[in-house]
Amino acid sequence: MLEIKDLHAEIPDVNGGKQILNGLSLTVNAGEVHAIMGPNGAGKSTLAYVLGGRPGYEVTGGSVKFAGEDLLEMDPHERAAAGLFLGFQYPVEIPGVSNVQFLREALNAQRQAREEEPLTGGEFLKHAKEQAALLKLDMDMLKRQVNVGFSGGEKKRAEMVQMGILDPKLAVLDETDSGLDIDALKTVGNGINAIMRKPDKGVLLITHYQRLLDYVKPDFVHILSQGRIVKTGEADLAQRLEAEGYDAVMAEVA
């Protein structure tokens, strides 16, 4: 589904650019959940932004294939229509635009790009109610402006509802557990499982902590350091990181 080979990326600036990713390789197959962990500055969010096509990041080497296509040749909206979803660490507010309006336009824009018929208002609301129920989000929240006045946990749950409505093939979730209390963490984790834990979907879950992985059980855990993956293991690797810290575990591969 996702095949990253020897990926290099930098943030260009007047001094020639700052290299962030340094030969990162990773394969995510359909039906798999991969967790990316690593210390601050390792390149975790940069990886998410590069995959999503966020401006301000320049790929200087390597390749990324998504569902057999060259992801790096696609514009961000084309990546979304192809089935890539990017969840942000800090979801943005969009004053003046309701969640219902935003999500219906986003879904129908993707359907149009795939040459599918748009959903009617009634069809969309039925779909939105079903997805909101998975995340225990009241439909009244979806009538409000996008993330305006939402708590951190409400923003993350609303973003997961967005993911459910758009129904992507691959979800890249950048620190989805950030700002969540215990109850919200469980709700979001269970929501990710209900939406994305399917044989034809994949998840790349970027996190600092093991706590979300108690609910979203990864098939593989990767440690990212200095822009490349330095160690890969199963779910118990995250537990070791929680108990021993990055320095102790990464000393084994130094």
UniProtKB/TrEMBL annotation:
Organism annotation: Qipengyuania pelagi
NCBIfam families associated with the record: sufC (TIGR01978)
ABC transporter domain mapped to chain residues: 2-251
UniProt cross-references to Gene3D superfamilies, sorted A to Z: P-loop containing nucleotide triphosphate hydrolases
Name assigned to this protein: Fe-S cluster assembly ATPase SufC
Family indicated by similarity: Belongs to the ABC transporter superfamily. Ycf16 family.
Alphabetized UniProt keyword annotations: ATP-binding, Nucleotide-binding
GO-annotated molecular function: ATP binding; ATP hydrolysis activity
ATP-binding keyword on record: yes
Gene transcribed to yield this protein: sufC
Pfam families: ABC_tran
